[in-house]
Amino acid sequence: MANTHVHSHAAGGETGTLNARHHKLALYAFLFVVLAHWAEHLAQAFQIYAMGWAVPKAKGVLGLWFPWLITSEVLHYAFALVMLVSLFALRKGFVGRARTWWSIALVLQFWHHVEHLLLIMQSSTGVNLLGRPVPTSIVQLLVPRVELHLFYNFIVFVPMVVAMVLHMRPNLEERAQMRCTCAVPAMA
Predict the structure, then answer these.
(1) Contact between residue 10 and residue 179 where contact means Cβ atoms under 8 Å apart
(2) Which residues cross the membrane (predicted)?
(3) Per-residue model confidence as pLDDT tens digits over 11-39
(4) Residue 185 covered by a domain
(5) CB 120 within 8 A of CB 73
(6) Distance CA 115, CA 11 (A)
(7) In this structure, what DSSP letter does residue 179 have?
(8) For burial by CB atoms within 10 Å, which of 36, 89, 173, 184 has the most?
């Protein structure tokens, strides 16, 4: 039985339609952006660990043509903010177990955003954490930046994917609560 519980006009303005009629498209667009970002981080890790490049020379794919992308705290902060806003804006479309996992991704991304906010503040003021020579996040005091950002992206990505899978394959109770068409047709 297909999801027939979709409202033609959801209350809540733009986030209402975003989380109802346009939820599937918005999720796929967001996933595309997240996967492209992952590809950049994985390319940079490959350059460092497989090709033996020094960290300052390993700039991912786009960074090879546009080196300022890797060194721009503004760009990194903007992406962390886009992730945070997207996770928040799309959250209303999730129900049940999927919403719980999406909320976990949102909380983890909030912390990742705080770390990037700290980095951009240091970059903007020239005053670095604990007098370090470069902008440094809190956890970066313990873990090198490349590895830390791979870790942050991983711990946000995993619950996000779990949420999307659960959202596409809801149980009967969750299916009845959904306002979007993201769920695959139920098995007979």
Answers:
(1) yes
(2) 25-46, 66-89, 150-168
(3) 445 557 899 999 999 999 999 999 999 99
(4) no
(5) yes
(6) 35
(7) -
(8) 89
Q: pTM here?
A: 0.86
Residue whose pair of structure tokens reads 């967001």 in the numeric block: 30
Stated length of the chain: 188
Residue 6 maps to a domain: no
Cα–Cα distance between 186 and 169 in angstroms, integer? 8
Domain around 63: 13-177
Q: Say how many domains are in the chain.
A: 1
pLDDT in tens, 127-179: 999 999 999 999 999 999 999 999 999 999 999 999 999 999 999 999 999 99
In terms of Cβ atoms closer than 10 Å to its own Cβ (0-12, 13-18, 19+), residue 50 is: exposed
169-182: b (≥16 Cβ within 10 Å) or e: ebeeebbeebbbbb
